[in-house]
Amino acid sequence: MPDLYPLARLFLFALDAEKAHHVTLSMMRAADATGLLGCLTGSGATGSSAAPDPLHSGVEVMGLRFPNRVGLAAGLDKTGSAVHAFGEIGFGHVEIGTVTPRPQPGNPKPRLFRLKEHQAIINRMGFNNPGVEGMLVNLSYSRKDFRGILGINIGKNFDTPNEEATRDYLLGLEEVYGAADYITANLSSPNTKGLRDLQNAETCRELILKLQEKREEVKPDHGGKHVPLVIKIAPDLSDEAIGALAKVFSETRIDGVITTNTTISRDAVAGHPLANEAGGLSGAPLTKTSTAVLARLRSELDPAIPVIGSGGVMSAADAQAKLDAGAALVQVYTGLVYRGPRLVREIAALA
């Protein structure tokens, strides 16, 4: 199939970044509803009701069977409205959210910026989402016939003080448990004030233990279904902090870790006119740092706990570097914006 995305990108990049995001999701949903999306992308319909992707026989991670090693990182489908459509592109798993217990509008606009020269994005969205109830309504439509793995990324509301943050995470887990194949607790977004403080080793330990306790409490309501719990960490942690967290993750037997979220560093884009915009930087400038954090964590983490590599996956080579560093799966966000569906297909072909 010809790669049509470069033409579509010319149109999309002429729009404001956030408007382009919403237009893209609307176009995807429309094409999916008419059955055209899989044909247009030449994806093989990994996650759809059609035949599974012939390029990969799947991989087992966290007790779940993933159709391939590439997934959609949280943040692109915050509302859970395009799960099947992303499956049609070829993603073996889709992580939606971050979703909070109550709906919230996020930070004031503009809050999403392209740094095209660097193949990067800065965002300060601030967990804009419809809340758990709204997301579950969306999922009742968008997940139909999706045969990949669904992750749901949960966070705290912006006005919930950190000392009460655990309550929001427990509410989120309880509400999404029945819909999720795995649940990620997002402690690492730079766009909710104080959130990254929850990555403190002892605070993180307490949260994990309470989430695990809540999981055991709600299991009987879902026929004993076991949903893996994952923690997503930042790329801006010191080696000492990574080591401390690795110890916590190993001792609590967390099911998985995602490395990494966006960075607050601007070293790689210094001098760019948008470099001083507040928010998290993603894309090519994050590639090496994120992979280094992955490798550092992998070296200190219990070998039985899988790591999911996210951050700066702009090519199949970037994905392979994360797999070589010890990742079991990889996730894409900004790479999809710049490269389009062909990137997903290239990574899905990796062994």
Q: Can you summarize this structure?
A:
It is built from 12 helices and 13 strands. With 351 residues, the chain is of the alpha/beta class.
What is the CATH class?
Alpha Beta
Uncertain ranges: 44-52
What is the CATH topology classification name? TIM Barrel
Largest sheet: 8 strands, parallel, barrel
The strand count comes to 13
In DSSP terms, counting alpha (H) and pi (I) runs of 4 or more, how many helices?
A: 12
CATH architecture: Alpha-Beta Barrel
Average predicted local confidence, pLDDT: 94
Distance between the termini: 22 Å
What does this structure look like?
With 351 residues, the chain is α/β, with parallel strands linked by helices. It has helices at 5-12, 17-33, 37-41, 83-89, 131-142, 165-176, 201-218, 239-252, 287-300, 316-324, 334-339, 341-348; strands at residues 59-61, 64-66, 70-72, 93-99, 112-115, 120-123, 149-154, 182-186, 229-233, 256-259, 280-283, 307-310, 329-332. The chain has one domain: TIM Barrel (Alpha-Beta Barrel), CATH 3.20.20.70. It contains 12 helices and 13 strands. It has an 8-stranded parallel beta barrel, surrounded by 7 helices. The chain has a 3-stranded antiparallel sheet with strand order 5-6-11, with no helix packed on it. The protein has a two-stranded antiparallel sheet with strand order 1-2. The longest helix has 18 residues, at 201-218. The relative contact order is 0.14.
